[in-house]
Amino acid sequence: MKSKILLAASIFLAATTQAQDLTTPQPDNWHIGVGGGLHSSFLQYSDLDEDIYPSKKLRNGGVFSIFAQGEFGNKHQFAIRPELNYTLRGGKLTDIGSKFFDEASRMSFYELNELKDIRYSLSAHYLDIRVSLIYQFGQKESALRPYVYIAPVLGICMGGEIKGEMQYEEGKNSYNYDGYAMDLTKKNMSGIYFAGAVGAGLKWQFRVGEHTCYLGAEVMYEQGFTNTYGEEKDGKATPVVFPEPMPQGTQVYGTRRMGGFEVRMNIGIPLSVFKKKAIPAPAPVVEEPAPTPVVVVEKKEKPCYSLEEITTMMAKGESVEGKTICAINDAINFDYGKSEIKSESYDYLNGLAETLIRTNAKIKVKGHTDNRGTADFNMKLSNDRAKAVVDYLIKRGVSPSKLTYEGYGMSLPLTDNDTEEGRSLNRRVEFEILK
After folding, report:
1. CA distances for 68 relative to 22, 33, 41, 83, 410, angstroms
2. Distance (Å) of CA 399 to CA 128, 355, 392, 395
3. Quick one: which of 73, 98, 214, 279 has the fewest CB in 10 Å?
4. ∠ CA 218-220-223 to the nearest 5 degrees?
5. Helices 307-315 and 346-358, interaxial angle, to 10°?
6. Which residues of the chain, if any, have pLDDT below 50?
7. Could you give the CA distance from residue 328 to residue 311 in angstroms, rounded to a whole number?
8. Three-class secondary structure of residue 190 per DSSP
9. SS3 329
10. What is the pLDDT at residue 18?
11. 322's torsion region: left (phi>0), alpha (psi -120 to 50) or beta?
12. pLDDT tens per residue, range 264-304
């Protein structure tokens, strides 16, 4: 028994290795899997008296498979599937002697003895090696792929039994008599079985993560080629010994072969699932010297400049765009609640006009007030004062294209309005340099 298992395993591994050498598949071309289903077999005799053995029946059993399948070709249309199967083969002869008549009464043996059935059954356990050659239809990416295949089958008999049984009635009762049961031996069963198989199937391919698995269903017909009788076959293999008064010594001559049908399901998992992904070596860590810290001294922008400061920066060629000139400390004065410029402000405005005339600078005049009075009143007053300054500068020769103005009322104070000093600072005119 152990030697047969080792022989089967060796042949299976050799077939798998040979298939890999032939196809050299890419990572996901090879799958391993298992299968299971139903195997129905029958017996074929070359020389059997049909009058004594009128009826043959199938012998049903299970089949279990492990396999490896490799696919190749541009569309993966070709495949090879070495597999190792465990299955049951055999057959039944029933209604044995039902056509035998007693010469005196012309009644059948069954009628004389109230028999219902005499049957012979053979059940043999096999370890098979199959190498299926498969052709698949459709694209390799298709979810459903039909296929056909042929396969040589090498079976190794692992044992089994032969049984002879008789069923009869007495009145309303039915009885079963086990005539005999015996283990298979080399005298009645060959240890090696060779057959050919053809089949067709349909497989469903589906993704699990980055891998393609499949589930398949297939049907197969198998035809045995070898004689299953053992060493002592012709004239020595008696399927059943008949009870009296049937003639004794009825023997089976010639050959006995097997055939069968199989229906099973397969599931395949790619071999790449079991391969460990290579982990790249970490890049060497190169320690770099710490950079010398750079202390950046941020130069704070002043909120506003005097006219003298702006004039000095312009003379040095420094940019003054976006800076603001604040006319505070009574540089530009107005009477309370009025927008007419007082004469003491003329010198300051004249200096500003000269600067604008000799440069390309443009300014926006902004008028502001303190918080005394209503918001609407202060908004209008600040706008009027800013306009008065613009009008004065135009009279001094400044191009109107260099001047714009806007009043902000009391919305943008420089400081609080709780003291007279604070309110004085908030009543101001500013000049924003646009260019």
Report:
1. 14, 6, 25, 6, 89
2. 108, 12, 11, 9
3. 279
4. 170
5. 20
6. 11, 13-27, 233-240, 243-250
7. 17
8. coil
9. coil
10. 42
11. left
12. 999 999 988 877 666 677 777 777 777 777 666 555 667 77
Residue 359: HSE in the Cβ half-sphere, 13 Å Cα cutoff? 23
The two structure tokens encoding residue 175:
């009885």
Q: Tens digit of pLDDT for each residue in 154-198?
A: 999 999 988 888 887 776 777 777 666 778 876 678 899 999 999
Predicted local distance difference test score (pLDDT) of residue 33: 95
The neighbouring-strand residues paired with 149 are 134, 199
Q: For residues 186 and 4, what is the distance between their CA atoms, to the nearest angstrom?
A: 14
Q: How far is CA 392 from CA 107, 219, 357, 434, in A?
A: 149, 107, 14, 19
- Answer yes or no: are the C-beta atoms of 428 and 356 closer than 8 Å: no
DSSP 133-172: EEEE-S-TT-SEEEEEEEEEEEEEEEEEEEEEEEEEEETT
- Please give the pLDDT value at position 100: 73
Omega before 293 within 30 of 0, i.e. cis = no
- Going from the C-alpha of 129 to that of each of 149, 155, 300, 425, the distances in angstroms are 15, 6, 89, 106
The DSSP code sequence of 203-242 is EEEEEETTEEEEEEEEEEEEEE-S----SS-TTTB-S-PP
3-class DSSP assignment, residue 175: strand
Return the amino acid letter for 321.
Answer: E
Q: Which residue has the tokens 């010594």?
A: 249
Tokens representing residue 284 in the block: 């060497």
Residue with tokens 């000093």: 421
**Confidence (pLDDT) at 295:** 63
* Residue indicated by tokens 């020595």: 236
